[in-house]
Specification:
CATH topology of the largest domain: Rossmann fold
Strand content: 15-25%
Oligomer: single chain
CATH architecture of the largest domain: 3-Layer(aba) Sandwich
CATH superfamily of the largest domain: P-loop containing nucleotide triphosphate hydrolases
Bound molecules: guanosine-5'-triphosphate, magnesium ion, zinc ion
Shape: flat
Number of helices: 9
Largest sheet: 6 strands, mixed
CATH class of the largest domain: Alpha Beta
Structural class: alpha/beta
Number of domains: 3
Length: 332
């Protein structure tokens, strides 16, 4: 269409958007038609989306007409009781899963992030921050614990304070690719960005010793770095519920998935059936107990939410039909 161009969403604030095109960052809003045709929240533009944009000569906001199909995505179950998706960011090449060596080190949470990245077809990369607060031996033990759990994603440790590991991190940020920082509040995601930029452009917050910090970054934001890489900062997530992630679980726990093909029963739940290849591997000590438990827990959670989600969709559909027929009757 004439006057339309492609732009990338860099920030979302309720109904208002910031988008970037060749000329810089401008504000934009949805066209009325797009807003009303969106079926659910995940159809709306999200940070990282490529959109079809119409710019106006005057100072008024540009209009977003459509979102291009997403190549990759990061999404979770919306927090709280609702069973629906929440899109975190899209079209990402590498997800940096940031953990602090100091307080935040939790392999079960790490597994969740890995499943989330895998489900969205994104390469995960683990970043351990705050190495200045622990001994080198302690750091080695932490990395060994990750490997012992069977996690094969690459790991880079660094300190935003001493600068150790920063050059290696910088080298990962190749031009033209999009990276996303994920992780709990207070692990140092924004500090890492400020460090890269060489200035305190974004707010960071002092956290208490326990790490129970306040949420500092309020919004997701896509930045274009000088050398041409794109980096998305996200606020720490308290809840990381997973919905519809069977593919991601299979990918992240690939060795368990492979084992399960050798179980005697094809519908084996791996919790006590005879001839269960996973339990046998556990008994032989080849599979770590913690990883096995975490696998079962994530699988159960995912199956539970998947059920409630399909139930909800079924009800939404039935409700939609009800509204349609009621409207028709009113017209008659
Ligand atoms: N000692 C030490 N402190 C760090 C390091 N990185 C960050 N910090 C401190 O950790 C605190 C939290 O850092 P932030 O960058 O705000 O954390 P965040 O991950 O962006 O947190 P949210 O925005 O809430 O998700 C700040 O006080 C930082 O100065 C590090 O490598 N070493
Ligand atoms: Mg932050
Ligand atoms: Zn089994």
């Amino acid at each position: 269409m004439p006057g339309q161009s492609i732009a990338r969403v860099t920030a979302v604030d309720r109904g208002a958007f910031l988008v970037r095109n060749g000329r810089g960052e401008i504000s934009a809003e949805l066209s009325g038609r797009f807003r009303f045709s969106a079926q659910s929240g995940i159809d709306l533009p999200c940070v990282g989306d490529w959109v079809c944009l119409q710019c106006h000569a005057s100072g008024s906001p540009a209009i977003i007409h459509a979102v291009f199909p997403r190549r990759t995505f990061l999404r979770r179950k919306a927090p709280g009781k609702t069973v629906d998706f929440q899109m975190i960011a899209t079209n990402i090449d590498v997800a940096f899963i940031v953990l602090s060596c100091h307080f935040d080190f939790n392999i079960r949470r790490l597994d969740r992030y890995l499943v989330m990245a895998c489900e969205g077809h994104i390469q995960p990369f683990i970043i351990l921050t705050k190495t200045d607060l622990i001994t080198p031996e302690d750091l080695e033990r932490k990395i060994a614990a990750i490997r012992h759990d069977g996690i094969s994603a690459e790991v880079l440790s660094l300190s935003n304070k001493s600068g150790d590991g920063m050059d290696d991190f910088r080298r990962l940020l190749v031009p033209g690719k999009t990276f996303c920082l994920l992780g709990s509040s207070g692990v140092g995601k924004t500090t890492l960005i400020n460090r890269l930029l060489g200035q305190d452009r974004f707010d960071t917050e002092a956290v208490s010793v326990t790490g129970e910090g306040v949420h500092t970054t309020a919004r997701r934001h896509l930045l274009v770095l000088d050398q041409g890489a794109m980096l998305i900062d996200t606020p720490g997530m308290r809840e990381l519920g997973l919905l519809d992630v069977s593919e991601g679980i299979g990918g992240s726990f690939a060795e368990i998935r492979d084992l399960s093909r050798h179980c005697r029963f094809s519908d084996c739940t791996h919790t006590g059936e005879p001839g269960c290849a996973i339990l046998m591997s556990l008994e032989r000590g080849e599979l770590s107990e913690e990883r096995y438990r975490n696998y079962l827990k994530l699988k159960k959670e995912s199956e539970f939410y998947d059920l409630s989600y399909s139930e909800k969709r079924r009800k939404d559909k039935a409700f939609g039909r009800f509204v349609k027929s009621a409207m028709k009757q009113m017209k008659e």
